């Protein structure tokens, strides 16, 4: 059963020179062609995960490109867009070129790189665009790596430049000043309760509202990362009604877990923005149903096990996820919506459509073969530090049997295949 943009149908999928070359009735493949039998399975376009932190350079004790890109294809992800909060941050063309050189020949999946948009490098946007950045990433509040945003005036100007270069900016939208104020008030609480109190919905709602206003005035396209608060979903919905070019992203952990369900895991479940209430979670699902949320990204953000094995207050935020999106969300979304949110949506947002995100003649032959039953064994995890609340608390609902990149199997029956042949998708 093959999931095309139009239907879910029984068919043969033919590949030539790395592209889809035939979509034909079952049994029509030439007898001498090498084949992969996907009987009993569902075939989807490879997932596009536009939100991963693969931690190179500088943070390879948390993750490295070999392990992370293996985890990606093990989870049916064939394209990733990697975040710039590494060491040094991806803040200049030189830093971007260093990343490109480091990752060349080591990635099992295709990849692109965000450039940073921060106070210290607001003059680098045109150069980052020229160097092939996939988009920009702006952190409005404090999180892993301290990369302060420009003040509003400078930010408005930077967004004008980004808009003129056609670069979309993905925003970590939490107001840093409101976070600091909430942290001062969050006394008498501990563990994840204190973390949740220190990162209130208000900080998210204010930041989403302000950045939509600024980007709209600047004519700059936006994407809001990891929507977590009900009010933030409403703010994105309103901005879209007002004609703002803003795309909404949600993450599997906010869709599948609440604070109440994961609080006992302490630091392991610490993430920014935090896991929130059932009402917030319900609002995310409404946002998916009505199109406010365009895409799902994993926010794969692992830290070393030893770094997480400390009190919540001092532990870093984030955990692995790139291998878990498909297995954990398949049962909740079904194949068509999964493809819409995890392949087509991000491909459209980040300029990869129509060559990625769909099974159609002429598109790149990146696909995943899924067995839609809970696996008998938990899948082996390939991230350097795979533990986290999704792995602990969410049952898998499907199994990745095979992943193909450019028509070649890169993942088959539980193991990586061939040498890494992922390509840099230079914008
Ligand atoms: O929990 C998080 N971890 N949120 C972020 O925004 C950054 C990420 C990381 O890089 O560790
Ligand atoms: Zn992130």
Count, helices: 14
Q: What is the CATH class?
A: Alpha Beta
Overall number of structural domains: 1
Query: What's the mean pLDDT score?
Result: 97
Distance between the termini: 33 Å
- Spans of at least 5 consecutive residues whose pLDDT stays below 50 are none
Order of strands in the sheet with most strands: 6-7-8-9-10-11-12-13
Shape: globular
* Architecture (CATH level 2) name: Alpha-Beta Barrel
Hetero groups in this structure are: (4S)-2,6-dioxohexahydropyrimidine-4-carboxylic acid, zinc ion
In the CATH scheme, what's the topology name?
TIM Barrel
Rg over CA atoms, rounded to whole Å, is 20 Å
What characteristics describe this protein?
17 strands, binds zinc ion, alpha/beta, 34% helix, 14 helices, 8-stranded parallel β-sheet, binds (4S)-2,6-dioxohexahydropyrimidine-4-carboxylic acid, 427 residues, TIM Barrel
What does this structure look like?
- There is one protein chain.
- With 427 residues, this protein is α/β, with parallel strands linked by helices.
- The chain has a single domain (46-360, 378-394), classed as TIM Barrel, CATH 3.20.20.
- Helix content is 34%, strand content 18%.
- It has 14 helices and 17 strands.
- The strands form four sheets. The protein has an eight-stranded parallel sheet.
- Helix 5 (176-185) packs across helix 6 (191-198).
- The radius of gyration is 20 Å and the shape is globular.
- The two termini are 33 Å apart.
- The mean pLDDT is 97.
- The protein binds (4S)-2,6-dioxohexahydropyrimidine-4-carboxylic acid and zinc ion.
- (4S)-2,6-dioxohexahydropyrimidine-4-carboxylic acid binds at residues 53, 85, 143-144, 172, 271-272, 301, 316-318.
């Amino acid at each position: 059963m093959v999931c095309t943009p139009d239907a879910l149908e029984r068919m043969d999928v033919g590949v030539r020179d790395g592209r889809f070359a035939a979509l034909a009735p079952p049994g029509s493949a030439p007898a001498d062609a090498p084949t992969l039998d996907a009987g009993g399975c569902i075939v989807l376009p490879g997932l596009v995960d536009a939100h991963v932190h693969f931690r190179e350079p500088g943070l390879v004790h948390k993750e490295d490109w070999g392990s992370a890109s293996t985890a990606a294809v093990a989870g049916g992800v064939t394209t990733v867009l990697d975040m710039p909060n590494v060491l040094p941050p991806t803040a200049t063309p030189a830093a971007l070129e260093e990343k490109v050189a480091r990752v060349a020949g080591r990635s099992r999946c295709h990849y692109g790189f965000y450039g940073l948009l921060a106070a210290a490098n607001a003059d680098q946007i045109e150069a980052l665009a020229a160097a092939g950045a996939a988009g920009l990433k702006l952190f409005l509040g404090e999180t892993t790596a301290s990369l302060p945003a420009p003040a509003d005036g400078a930010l408005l100007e930077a967004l004008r430049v980004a808009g003129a270069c056609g670069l979309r900016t993905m925003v970590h939208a939490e107001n840093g000043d409101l976070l600091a104020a909430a942290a001062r008030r969050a006394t008498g609480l501990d563990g994840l309760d204190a973390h949740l109190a220190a990162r209130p919905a208000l900080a998210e709602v204010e930041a989403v509202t302000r950045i939509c206003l600024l980007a709209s005035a600047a004519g700059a396209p936006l994407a809001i990362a990891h929507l977590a608060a009900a009010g933030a979903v409403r703010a994105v919905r309103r901005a879209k009604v007002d004609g703002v070019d803003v795309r909404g992203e949600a993450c599997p952990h906010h869709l599948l877990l609440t604070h109440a369900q994961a609080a006992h895991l302490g630091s392991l479940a610490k993430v920014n923005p935090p896991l929130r209430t059932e009402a917030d979670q319900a609002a995310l699902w409404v946002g998916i149903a009505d199109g406010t949320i365009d895409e799902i990204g994993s926010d794969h953000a692992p830290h070393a096990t030893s770094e997480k094995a400390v009190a919540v207050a001092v532990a870093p935020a984030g955990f692995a996820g790139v291998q878990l999106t498909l297995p954990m969300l398949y049962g909740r979304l079904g194949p068509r919506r999964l493809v819409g949110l995890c392949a087509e949506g991000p491909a459209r947002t980040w300029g990869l459509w129509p060559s990625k995100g769909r099974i159609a003649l002429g598109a790149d032959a990146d696909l995943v073969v899924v067995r839609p039953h809970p696996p008998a064994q938990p899948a082996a995890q390939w991230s350097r530090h795979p533990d986290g609340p999704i792995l602990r608390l969410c049952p898998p609902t499907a199994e990745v049997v095979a992943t193909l990149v450019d028509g070649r199997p890169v993942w088959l029956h539980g193991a990586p295949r061939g040498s890494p042949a992922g390509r840099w998708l230079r914008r």
